[in-house]
Amino acid sequence: MTDQAFKLRELININSAKKESVPGDARIIAVSSGKGGVGKTNFTVNLAIALSKMGHSVTIIDADLGLANIDILLGLVPRYTLTHVLKQEKTLSEILVEGPNGIKIVSGGSGVMDMVNLSPTELNRLIDSLEHLNNESDYILIDTGAGLNHSVISFIQASQELVVVVTSDPTSITDAYALIKNISKLDVSIKVVVNRIESNKEGHDVFEKINTATTKFLKLEMESIGYIYEDQNVKKSVKKQVPFLVGFPNTLASRGVELIAENLVRNSTYSQPSGGFSTFIKKIFKNKQ
Ligand SMILES: Nc1ncnc2c1ncn2[C@@H]1O[C@H](COP(=O)(O)OP(=O)(O)OP(=O)(O)O)[C@@H](O)[C@H]1O
Ligand SMILES: [Mg+2]
User: Fold this and answer.
1) Which sequence spans correspond to the domains of the chain?
2) Which atom of ligand 1 sits closest to the CA of residue 42?
């Protein structure tokens, strides 16, 4: 073998060894809230863009059973969902849509609910296709929708980390506490984002209210990963169907989300390696048994 060929082979070996050591390493983060309308979807989309700007590959799963929120925020046309994958009408790569900065979006649609009734063969098929996604992503963000329904809890249980979005509205705070109480026995690291603040003190006070209650009554300490200011450009960007990190990169809300992304990347206090998407799906499946 020539020197060059030898080097080439070594290089290929190194690359394939590298590849084998990474699969299944995506950080799977659920984004949820007690009360609806607090800014989860805007946060999820813009966090994905912030992480992507930092050089990470990000996939969003829109697991909100209501409207296709993420599609609307990104101005994407209605399209296929996980339901079509489960019915074998489409492959995962056919339903995957690319958003700004190369972020990928998977729409759950009613497929999220269909996961309840999968046969072992169907389950394996889904795991195989999602595993591929896992290998390609550093971060998988799941917009779970609001509230305490079974699907939301399953997605949280299957994730390693949960970001609870809350505002200073008292019902948002009490509903966030109710959500945290409900999932307090799960092995998931809980982080709090306070949205729509008028001052840092307000963000701090809202976080302290929640953390004091969870520490006292649930023996569970929350972690604050940042605040996002009330910002008129958020509404404008929703209207324009362009995420604020793209349309208004220097606005207050963008800076807030970027700081949160930096905090998340720096902070790796999550309970266990994700085990990838197969573990994720198996956990969801197990919850339904
Ligand atoms: N930081 C902010 N500043 C100003 N307005 C905001 C901010 N965050 C969210 N909003 C407003 O709140 C609205 C709802 O946001 P979003 O759709 O992200 O909430 P959600 O929690 O995903 O709602 P749902 O529970 O219905 O899915 C936005 O359309 C926007 O008008
Ligand atoms: Mg939403």
Assistant:
1) 26-287
2) 18
Q: Write the pLDDT tens digit of every residue in 165-194.
A: 999 999 999 999 999 999 998 888 999 999
- 60 within 8 A of 45, measured Cβ to Cβ: yes
How much is the pTM? 0.86
Residue with tokens 């001052």: 199
Does ligand 1 have an atom closer than 6 angstroms to the CB of 35?
no
Mutate to test the pocket of ligand 1, among 40, 42, 257 (most ligand atoms within 8 A of CB): 42
At residue 179, what is the residue type? L
Instruction: Starting from the CA of residue 36, give the closest ligand.
Output: 1
Q: What is the DSSP letter of 75?
A: T
Structure tokens at 195: 């949205």
Architecture per CATH, 26-287: 3-Layer(aba) Sandwich (3.40)
Q: In what order do the strands lie in the sheet with 189-197?
A: 97-98, 104-107, 58-62, 139-146, 27-33, 161-166, 189-197, 223-229
Nearest ligand 1 atom to alpha carbon 165: 21
CA distances from 166 to 73, 101, 222, 252, 264 (A): 20, 27, 13, 18, 17
Phi, psi dihedrals of residue 73, rounded to the nearest 5°: -60, -30
